[in-house]
Amino acid sequence: MSPAKQELDVAAVLERGRTMATPVLRAAVDRLAAPMDTVAAYHFGWIDADGKPAHGDGGKAVRPALALLSAEVTGASPEVGVPGAVAVELVHNFSLLHDDLMDGDEQRRHRDTVWKVHGPAQAILVGDALFALAFEILLESGTAEGARAARRLTVASRKLIDGQAQDISYEHRDRVTVEECLEMEGNKTGALLACAVSIGAVLGGADDETADALEEYGYRLGLAFQAVDDLLGIWGDPAATGKQTWSDLRQRKKSLPVVAALAAGGPASDRLAELLAEDAKAVASLTRGADDFDEREFAARAALIEEAGGRSWTSEEARRQHTLALAALDKVSMPERVRENLVALADFVVVRER
């Protein structure tokens, strides 16, 4: 398949997921009490800060697309996967609302985050409400398949929260091992993607063996996705990512490029360790805030990460996880068209700019 054709196919798969999930997602959000319904609508890009209709960037919609394809793995129609697509998207956005507040991020999808516009209390409440809605959507059918899907989403949600807790704790440590970082990212990103690509199959009646193999694909895909995200968090173009330049460096995140660079050894690695330790001490003593560092200082740290090999190692890890994700698909019998779309989505995840 040519790159242009593959790009078109991925765009169509993502758009189908968004188109089929959004009406059900909107209906779910309409159940929320005011003003949470309005705040959630702002977060999803359906209205602007003044409450006027908008067509904001609602995200890549990878998870809904995976949930619909997951249902088709079993031979079911994509509609069978819609409750799973909506539930996973609700949990994902619950995590974004809370993450933005905890990380102090002021921009998401090219506009102000919910806590910046509506305040921290609303960001917390709406996040909690979206989390509850996810399980309401799955369980209201009253079927055994809905209950099995909810169990998988429960486990994935707990792992996602574990990952966020690990991420925060690592910010206050001088050193984190590559293995610890991969475990954290597997929890924070891999677990929910794993659930997304199995939940539709479970709703379609798949056995646990099939669902587990699909989860392996999703988990590896999540690690590849996060590795690319970590690269974009340092070297991404703000016009494409919607975030500040050097966003992860500003937050002192122990992302894969940073951890790999620190573990590499050598002059660049040692100098990076010294600078990061000095930065952490200055911030802890309140002599400098994150906003007090200028662009040259962030650029110097990024250059040291690259010189120590953190950038190239992370790129290679994304490709390695991509290969493992595709290998997991070989364990599952499915229509060839569905397999091609899952492969194309995996390719999309490791070759993107936002």
TrEMBL record:
UniProt entry keywords in alphabetical sequence: Magnesium, Metal-binding, Transferase
GO MF terms, alphabetically ordered: metal ion binding; prenyltransferase activity
GO biological process: isoprenoid biosynthetic process
Domain of life (superkingdom): Bacteria
Family: Belongs to the FPP/GGPP synthase family.
Pfam family, one: polyprenyl_synt
Name of the featured protein: Dimethylallyltransferase
